[in-house]
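Sequence in, structure out. Go.
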Amino acid sequence: MHLKKPKDIGLYLLMVPGVLIVFVFCYVPMAGLVIAFQDYSIFKGIQASSFVGLKHFIKLFSQGNFTRILRNTIMVSVYRIVFGFPIPIILALFINEIRTILPKRIVQTIIYLPHFLSWVIVYGLFVSFFSASGSIMRAIYAHSDSVPVILTDSSLFRSILVGTSIWKESGWGTVLYMAAITSIDPQLYESAIIDGAGRLRLMRHITLPGIAPTIIMVLIIRIGSLIDSQTEQVLLFLNPLVYETGDVIGTYIYRMGLGKMEYSFSTAVGLFGSVIGFALMLLANSLSKKHAGRSIW
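Output:
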């Protein structure tokens, strides 16, 4: 009945392009997952390629470096959640405390800008500043005989990934939380101020509970993407000297699929990661629903 209203029809029409894009680029390619259970040949195609069952999954679990790759993937993602997840929330809370419009807009613009830089540009900037011949490293070690090459230091590689990821995406991550903050009833703040509440109390007892559903939703999604370690970023920063701590599932799929053309095996690896991610999302959603009373569905 509501769909017959002109304004509702217009809103649903606006959804059509987005739904089509998701369907074409996310759901249609799923038909190709069948090659994870085949010895796929680009010359034979999907229909003529032989079915091999779980052969590629058995091969994956028997790989000597599989444990290391899985560990690296999980550790990088966990570090991103532990150190990166709270930053947009903190930024949003502090931006909300800026009462003057112009400074607030300036701060938002500055922290949003890195998001619009591609990882190629971010990598180029990082190398320019922090390579052995970079300006920052030369300034820091101006009186030293040797300059450390941090880009090839395996012990620092995860920190580099997490640090650059936080710098690039934290500002943009505040958008959701700022939208949630604006939806909080202003009368709650007015009543609390009358009762003598200061800014910290307003933040603690009104703002944070008001954005709690958004925080939980984002956290569940982040947990679900634990196996997704931002392959594009890792590929750019990765080099053979840091494979021990930096080689993740995404880069492994890239090497196997595009490098060695083992399409069936790389699809099996990707499917394994997707299943694990989906299971983690279901688990996180279930725990959130049970203990916090909030969930995505």
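Check: The longest strand covers residues 38-39. Residues 1-53 form one domain.
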